[in-house]
Amino acid sequence: MQIKGFWNRHKAEWYQKGLEHSGFPKAAMGVILPRAERCKSFLDVGSGCGSLAIPLAKAGKTVTALDASGAMINILNEEVKKLKLKGIKPLVSEWDKAELKAHDAVLCANVPTLLSEPEKTIKRMDSLARKAVFIIENADPKGDKFYYNELYPLLFNKPFGERADYFRTYSALHSLGIYANVEIIEYDFDQPFADLDEAMEFWKEYIGIVTGEHDRKLRDFLDKKLVRKKGTLLAKFHKKSAVMWWVKGKKA
User: Fold this and answer.
1) Would you list the domain boundaries of the chain?
2) What share of the chain is helix, strand, coil (3-state, %, to 5)?
3) How far is residue 163's CA from residue 144's CA, in Å, rounded to a whole number?
4) What's the rounded Cα separation, in Å, for the pair 58 and 42?
5) Which terminus has fewer CB within 10 Å in the chain: N or C?
6) What is the pTM of this model?
7) Fold of 9-142+162-190+239-247
8) How far is CA 100 from the centre of its chain?
9) Cα–Cα distances in Å, from 42 out to 15, 80, 89, 166?
10) Which of 66, 94, 65, 73 is nearest to 4 (CA)?
11) Strand 88-92 to strand 227-229: parallel, antiparallel, or no bridges (unpaired)?
12) Residues 6+ positions from 50 with CB-CB distance below 8 Å
């Protein structure tokens, strides 16, 4: 969410539709809210279209929702207006350029680019948190993303490779003397499509295919892989994430 230009409006809308079939917000809130009873204000770094900012606001928290993508923040603004929510302040800015005030809690969920230099990012998050910090990352380096483990060999004759995992961040925390708690959550995150043409557009956009040379293989694969349910095509995914959290001034 912090790669400038990555989240165009089309991708942002797909992500928002995926949230309608996702158990991620509920699973994450199940860990965060019981441990944030003393926290009234949250800084949500890489908030996207509000997957966690919205349930936090519904729980009575005030949230500064920071994201580098104008498309994501525009969708968040639309959702805030539609739901008549108070307590969310959307902010379009890159993390390293934003002028931010301290909040009771800092939250960063599924923003791997932000943690490419974990020590630097962790230090700033910790300095902006008065009471607690929550970081959520992928917990399965061999876990699939958008069927890439199958598609890359099929289309490009090469493996996709392992994904970034929470362990590097946890190691960085330990080296900084922060002995964080870790809780693993599991959830479904299914992506819906109106038809096969939309699914084709989705995968070509994400993989970066601009020609039609792979269309037949990709279409045949998706036609067999996607699940038809109530007039919708679903790409079904089950994910694991690690919620790393610590309370300021206390050891885990």
Assistant:
1) 9-142+162-190+239-247
2) 40, 25, 35
3) 8
4) 13
5) C
6) 0.93
7) Rossmann fold (3.40.50)
8) 21
9) 22, 16, 10, 22
10) 94
11) unpaired
12) 65, 75, 76, 79, 80, 88
Q: How far apart are CA 106 and CA 42, in angstroms?
A: 6
Output the CA angle 183-188-191, nearest 5 degrees.
135
Please write the tens of the pLDDT for every residue from 139-198.
988 888 899 999 999 999 999 988 888 999 999 999 999 999 999 999 999 999 999 999
Bridge partners of 188, per DSSP, are: 238
DSSP secondary structure code for residue 7 in this structure: S
Instruction: Assign 3-class secondary structure to 94-126.
Output: CHHHCCCCCEEEEEEECCHHHHCCHHHHHHHHH
**CA dihedral of residues 26, 122, 180, 36 (deg, nearest 10):** -40
Locate tokens 């207006």: which residue? 81
Question: The tokens of 245 are what?
Answer: 């959290």
69 burial (CB, 10 Å; 0-12 / 13-18 / 19+) is buried
Q: What would the pLDDT profile of 31-81 be if each residue is shown by its tens digit?
A: 999 999 999 999 999 999 999 999 999 999 999 999 999 999 999 999 999
Widest Cα–Cα separation across the chain: 57
As a whole number of Å, the CA-based R_g of the chain is 19
The terminus-to-terminus CA distance of the chain in angstroms comes to: 29
* Rounded distance between C-alpha atoms, residue 63 and residue 106, angstroms: 10
Token pair 């610590």 is at which residue?
Answer: 246
